């Protein structure tokens, strides 16, 4: 695959290799721990380095991939996210602020809750909860 840039921006070899890998992909799945209701800094740094002007947005860049799935791993149960709207905030940031900005329309955020296994409901066995989380993650990947 060759990349034609309409800008004078120069990227390192490592960044260019990663850009080529991304552009050759049909879909991206980002799996990450949720830190302070957002992405870890290292993942944000990756996005900043790879989804560059002239590559992922600006001019005639076009979408870098067809689909993006965001899988956030939360130690908290869902009701704590619902209480303050953190889940909606994260969905907007990842789907609109990042994915749609780089012209990827098929984008979904999936938050897997209570991944640390601190159960408030004694009716749920930790093994069953972990199994359900793995099945959910597998289904997300299989749906692509």
Could you characterize what this model shows?
There is one protein chain. The protein is of the alpha/beta class. It has a single domain, classed as Rossmann fold. Helix content is 41%, strand content 15%. The protein is built from five helices and three strands. Strands 1-2-3 form a three-stranded parallel sheet, sandwiched between helices. Strand 1, helix 2 and strand 2 form a beta-alpha-beta unit. The longest helix has 17 residues. The radius of gyration is 17 Å and the shape is elongated. It starts with 12 loop residues before the first helix and ends with a helix. 15% of the residues are buried.
SSE arrangement:
Blueprint: H1 13-23, E1 27-33, H2 41-50, E2 67-73, H3 78-84, H4 86-99, E3 106-112, H5 126-142
Parallel strand pairs: 1-2, 2-3
Task: Say which CATH homologous superfamily is assigned.
Answer: Flavodoxin domain
CATH C-level label: Alpha Beta
What's the CATH topology label? Rossmann fold
Task: Give the helix/strand class.
Answer: alpha/beta
Shape: elongated
The low-pLDDT segments are none
Q: Give the tally of β-strands.
A: 3
Rg (C-alpha, Å): 17 Å
Corresponding CATH architecture: 3-Layer(aba) Sandwich
- Count the domains: 1
Order of helices and strands: HEHEHHEH
Average pLDDT metric: 89
* N- to C-terminal distance: 23 Å
**What count of helical segments does DSSP give?**
5
Strand adjacency order, main sheet: 1-2-3
